[in-house]
User: What shape does this take?
Amino acid sequence: MKTLGAFLIAAMLASLPGALAAQPPADIVCVQCHGRQTGRTGEPVALWRQSIHAENGIGCNGCHGGDPNDADNAMSPARGFIGVPAESAIPAVCGKCHVGVMNDYLSSAHGKALGGGGPTCVTCHGNHKVLRASLDLINEKDCSRCHGFERARIIRDAMQKTEGSIVAIDRRISRYKNEGADVERIEKGLFALRNRFHTLFHDQDVEKVWKEAVRIDGELGKIEAVLGEMNETRRQRKIVGAFAVGGALLAALLFHLLRKSYD
Ligand code: HEC
Ligand code: HEC
Ligand code: HEC
Ligand code: HEC
Ligand code: HEC
Assistant: This one.
């Protein structure tokens, strides 16, 4: 029975390609051929497989160009292959898809130092094993390679507190949602705030981070107030519910006693 169930589920999954889980583009010719190589040209494959890009269907050609379906012409410049991007070209390669981040980066102190000792996207995120970003990327070891950690620490501290509030509110909304509360509006509100918050970093503008963090904290406070009201009605409903259950039990008991006294 168990194996039949597993078989049916497997058959269902197979008939819904990409609908339930994003398929890693493991079958493109770049991965097939480079996956058989060792050293400099083979290593990127294993790293890329663990990346958020593989998870979201972005293959080698997403960054390097080329034709992922034609082994003979895969690395032909006529098919858009650009080879290994030079350091100064990296922001534009990533920026094809991450346009907003690229623009913030280019106008920042880091972008202005591109080619002159400033970090590129891959200095902080890596090139092949790119993972979901978080504030953990701002750490003493990585950020004090080129300058002191002090300015980085100020940005990190300003963002850490707000990040903590966002995570806590998100958990609370999920809990209310599981109890059947209508949280759609505040959920959307939080989503928008979170997106705005996560665009702050690449400017490297300490003042701006402070100002925005204060504004976003204010907005988060409003969401917390709405959640507070919901909590109150939820509590009252529980009391009313308890009375209703108690009343029903009492009625049942009375009914039972009445019937008994007739017997
Ligand atoms: C049939 C095998 C094969 C296929 C298919 C293939 N490659 Fe390659 N690739 C190689 C070999 C061999 C090298 C190393 C020799 C060279 O540079 O030509 C290489 C080198 C590279 C390099 C490094 C170039 C350099 O200048 O150091 C990149 C980047 C690359 N491939 C990306 C891709 C991408 C992206 C695809 C798919 C669109 C792809 N490859 C498809 C065999 C392949
Ligand atoms: C998210 C963008 C991205 C993806 C996806 C990606 N690469 Fe790269 N790759 C780069 C960048 C950027 C460099 C330049 C490295 C640097 O300067 O750090 C690079 C460098 C390379 C090199 C040269 C390595 C060296 O040490 O000389 C090879 C080979 C390569 N990539 C192959 C691949 C293959 C094969 C895939 C797919 C399995 C792939 N890349 C997927 C961005 C990417
Ligand atoms: C062909 C499009 C494409 C290119 C080119 C590309 N990315 Fe991505 N990237 C994506 C997609 C799609 C996702 C997953 C969806 C998302 O979270 O935005 C993603 C996710 C990410 C994330 C995680 C985002 C998060 O929410 O935490 C980082 C970091 C990232 N990419 C960095 C890079 C870097 C660095 C480069 C260049 C070396 C690059 N990307 C090149 C499409 C691309
Ligand atoms: C100095 C280090 C550094 C550099 C340079 C850098 N990033 Fe980031 N990136 C971070 C950190 C730290 C975060 C996490 C910020 C947060 O959690 O709010 C992040 C977050 C991201 C995200 C997810 C957040 C979002 O807004 O979608 C993407 C995508 C991303 N970076 C792409 C890039 C690209 C593309 C470049 C180059 C144009 C780049 N990064 C350059 C450190 C860096
Ligand atoms: C590869 C070298 C390098 C790395 C790594 C690096 N930076 Fe920078 N950073 C620079 C350069 C170059 C400048 C511009 C010159 C200066 O202000 O010192 C700069 C400037 C800054 C500034 C000042 C911006 C301003 O306008 O005052 C901040 C803040 C900053 N970096 C934060 C970070 C953080 C956070 C990290 C780690 C996630 C980091 N940096 C990693 C090279 C680097």
